[in-house]
Every structure is written in C-alpha cells, then in structure tokens.
Amino acid sequence: MQRRKFLQSTTSAFLLLASGEVVKAEGSWLTNLSAKKLKLRFVVASDGHYGQPGTDYENYFKAVVDHINAQHASNPFAFCMINGDIIHDDKAHCPAAKAALDQLQVKYYVSQGNHDKLTADEWMQTWKMPINLHFSIKKNSFVIASTSNETGTYLCPDLGWMSTTLEKLKRQKNVFVFIHINPVKLTTNAVDCPELLQLLTKYKNVRAVFNGHDHDEEKIKVKENVPFVFDAHFGGSWGTDYRGYRIVELYSDNSVATWVMNPENRINEAML
C-alpha cells in the first residue's frame, strides 16, 4: 500500500511525498479516481462555536447542516464528524447546538474542543457518547479523543487510552483519528505531544489525523510521515473567508481522496 502521498490542488496540483518533496502533478488523477470503486465516504466539520457573541451562529449551524444534507442526499456519507468547539464556552448552549446538529440526516459523532467546557459526565449526558471512543466500519476504524476539559485547558489526548485503542485496532486496514487541537505544534495554536507522535508513527495503519481548532488552516501538514488534516471552520468569528467542511472518500484500492467544500465548491483536493 502506498502511504503518506498527497495530491494537493488550489489553482494547480502538486504531489507531496513522504520525503517532503513537492512535485507538480498532472490533472489526470481526477479522471483516474472516477474509475475506482468507492468503498466509504464521510464528512468532517469543525468549530461551530454555537453561542459566540457577535456571530450569526444559528445560521452557521443551519447552513452547514443544509449543505451536508444536500451532499448526503446525492452521494451518501457513512457518518459526519463534528470535530470540536461545538459551543462557545457556555454549556447552556448545548441543547440548542445539539438540536441543530440533530437535523443532520446522517449519523454524527462529536469530539471535545477547548470551548466545549463540559465534564466527561456532562459530555456523556449531552451527546450520549464518551469523550474518548472508537468505532469501526468493516476493516476501517475511527478514533475520537478529547483534547480539553471543563476549564478549556489545551491538552494532549489521553496517551494510555490512545495506546490501548491503537493496539486493539492494529489489524484493521485503516485507522482515522479525530482530535480537535493539533498535537504536534504544526500551528500557532497547537500543543506539543511528542509521545503521541511517537505512538502514531508506530502504527502504519493510521492513515490521517483530522484536526479543527485552527480556523485559518485548510490543508494537510505532514510530520514524521503522519498527515494532519485541517478543515477550517463552519462558525466562529475568525478564520478563512468561507465557512465550510471536508469530504473524505476511501476507494477499493485503499487510496483516499479528500477536499474542502467552501461550502459550494471543492478546493484543496488531495490524495493520500
């Protein structure tokens, strides 16, 4: 299996190799992709910040839900991942934020960000899932871990839980990890979790780590051959000049295509 290879596209396309070398790529990859059999499709959206003063948060949530539902109706997703900072600090916003996300017509999961200031018990009561969990769809597994707590502290994921979970999933074909805060200091607002990076590099079936938190990050960054994938934001008061989400597709040859929707158009297309 070819691993850690990315094709990135803005106005032109480039192939980013595991070595860090960047080479210009031909546009034929999209044509080749259409001939492959799609095995799995999911969507990731981050940073809604429901309740943030001075923002149109109710309409931000409605817009992302409407866009994802429209995509799901034309080409179904297996699930939707809301990758942290669902609310903005005040837990009183949780019922309304959940009611808005409950309008999604696809099963969704959530991760805890630094503005989701709930205890582990409150998180379970609100979202009906623990702050750390994993699930599988056939030979593909998905790991979700908290990077904060009820005080909003920036944290590394629970290393013991991550280690046990990745070991349990080592025979799976692919593992995709979702954590809100980038754990390897690739952005200004990241944290540094060297033991986690060492753990991730140990398991060759870890295909990508998806991060939110940095509203102005929309591409893929690679460290120690591990790709960290960003999707900007769908709410909040700062970041990219659009509010969007990321689509990920897994194909029968185990290649993965991904791109950001901004929210109507595809940008930053990549292969891994």
Topology:
Blueprint lengths: L5 E4 L3 E4 L5 E3 L3 H7 L3 E8 L11 H18 L4 E5 L10 H8 L6 E4 L8 H8 L5 E5 L2 E6 L13 H10 L5 E6 L14 H9 L3 E6 L8 E4 L2 E5 L14 E7 L4 E6 L4 E6 L1
Parallel strand pairs: 4-5, 5-6, 8-9, 9-10, 10-12
Antiparallel strand pairs: 1-2, 2-3, 4-13, 7-8, 11-12, 13-14, 14-15
Helix pairs in contact: 5-6
3D architecture notes:
This protein has helices at 28-34, 57-74, 94-101, 120-127, 159-168, 194-202, and strands spanning 6-9, 13-16, 22-24, 38-45, 79-83, 108-111, 133-137, 140-145, 174-179, 206-211, 220-223, 226-230, 245-251, 256-261, 266-271. It contains six helices and 15 strands. The chain is globular. By secondary structure, it is α/β, with parallel strands linked by helices. It has a six-stranded mixed beta sheet, with no helix packed on it. A six-stranded mixed beta sheet has the order 7-8-9-10-12-11, covered by helices on one side. It has a three-stranded antiparallel beta sheet with strand order 1-2-3, with no helix packed on it.
